[in-house]
Amino acid sequence: MPAPFRLPPSLAQQRIAVLLSGGVDSSVVVCELARLGLHPDCFYIKIGATPTPDSDEWDCSMEEDLEMATAVARKYGCRLEVVDCHEEYWSQVTRYTMEKVRAGLTPNPDVMCNRLIKFGAFHEKCGHAYDLIATGHYAQTETDGEGRKWLTTSPDPVKDQTDFLAQIYDWQLRKALFPIGHYMKDDVRQIAEREHLVSAHRKDSQGICFLGKINYNEYLRRFLGEQEGDVVEIETGRRIGSHRGHWFHTIGQRKGMGLGGGPWFVIKKDIEHNTVYVSHGYNPDSAYSQHFAIRDFHALTLPLSELIAVSPTVTFKIRHTPEFFTATIEPQPDGTYMVHSTERIHGVAPGQFCVVYDAGHHRCFGSGEIM
Questions:
Q1: pLDDT for 250-289, tens place per residue?
Q2: Residue 320: which residues within 8 A CB-CB, separation 6 or more?
């Protein structure tokens, strides 16, 4: 197991807020800080349910989460405060998600939740009174010789969450603290068991941040409804089935189509006519891309143009997986970038974030939206 978390002497006297969700990761964050003799203030971000046109309210798992968070805070003598970010989540993150999905894109709500809620709305309500905001993300930071702070990857390739943090603002990164980012997930579990934390054996949350047990397709259905459309085989133009709305399907998808004789891969979508095009067979050639454009690149520490001018070779990922791909990035006159991957990538979909790292996938440079 790596050495325990150490707070740099320059930060020892700073005020720290911990975002405590009730899960094992944020619980161990409190444990690590308490081991250093600190008693940080803890905050549980409340999102809760929201009314929808066809349902009075959704059932979320907040009560159990809050019980766990309360027990952990009490164990280490920390104050716990519930912060209501209900309105901000549903007006900002949900609006972003639905606008992108309605346009036929593939958004990532968790990415924007970090920018807009965990390091955004929370900061406006409470975080501004603290020097550092600690979370249970599997990520690290480092400061270079010129005092610039970089977001860096976790040693756990499966749990690394730098891709979810690649859209936060530079000032948010400067306040971010990741006390468990240098651990493997198994290490965190061992610490939780050793400390007899009530959250030690809780399963990792699945799906979208703050939605609890709500299924993503149900999330979409509640806001966008259903609209039947055709499923068409792209090679032949033959209608082979129907779907309930193009927003339930993403480029590269090969499960959940409800079609026989598969696998079937989603190749493209005609948004205007609500048509989903699929291709039959295993890993069809048309499901791969090697060169694609990204726009609105959000740089964390330095502009991407400066970084690739010094070192043209980068690594990147387009979804939350352990694998990184190697590429060169070419600036375009209109401010976009062309990504030239050394290998073909499956399921490159407009709206996804392309997260860019240095050649050794250590420092995260930021991310841009695939066009």
A1: 998 888 888 888 788 899 999 999 999 999 865 667 678 9
A2: 161, 163, 164
